[in-house]
Design goal:
There is one protein chain. This protein is 21% helix and 20% strand. The chain has 2 domains: 36 residues, no CATH class; 85 residues, no CATH class. It is built from 3 helices and 5 strands; from the N terminus they run αββαβββα. The longest helix has 13 residues. It has a 5-stranded mixed beta sheet. The chain is globular, with a radius of gyration of 17 Å. With 138 residues, the chain is an alpha+beta fold.
Length: 138
């Protein structure tokens, strides 16, 4: 059974659980149409939870390749998570857009929730951001 109500994946593949929630797991038995977006349910993943286990600092990253942009729902859920986290070593939620696929093969645009003021940075600046949890301002 194929749950056509859910947004189709842009890229092929996915986890068996993700395919199951969309009603597109080969040989799937359970009807999951009650879990559709029309019923109010949305499934999204967090691309990266970046953590320095020595300092305890951590942050969330939503990554997009080929200049992609998150859906409205992804922005909304990332903002919801960001505003709910009160951990003293939490450093924020970021959207990172790669012109191609990674920091070394094109432009990098970074933006922090909730205002998402975009800034283009270099691969070295991105590396330093991940290493030091340095604040990147627009």
């Amino acid at each position: 059974m194929n749950n056509q109500i859910c947004k189709q994946r842009v890229f092929a593949g996915g986890t068996p659980f993700g395919l199951w929630t969309r009603g597109s797991l080969p040989g799937q038995i359970t009807d999951v149409s009650c879990l559709s977006s029309q019923a109010g349910y949305v499934r999204t993943d967090i691309d990266t939870l970046w953590h320095n286990f020595r300092t305890g600092e951590w942050l969330l990253i939503e990554e997009k390749i080929h200049g992609g942009r998150p859906s409205y729902c992804q922005y909304e859920l990332l903002d919801m998570l960001n505003s709910s986290i009160v951990h003293p070593l939490y450093r924020g939620a970021y959207l990172v857009r790669f012109e191609n696929t990674n920091p070394d093969d094109g432009k990098i645009i970074i933006a922090k929730s909730p205002d998402y003021q975009s800034r283009e940075i270099t691969a070295v600046q991105f590396r330093d951001f991940l290493r030091d949890f340095s604040v990147i301002e627009a």
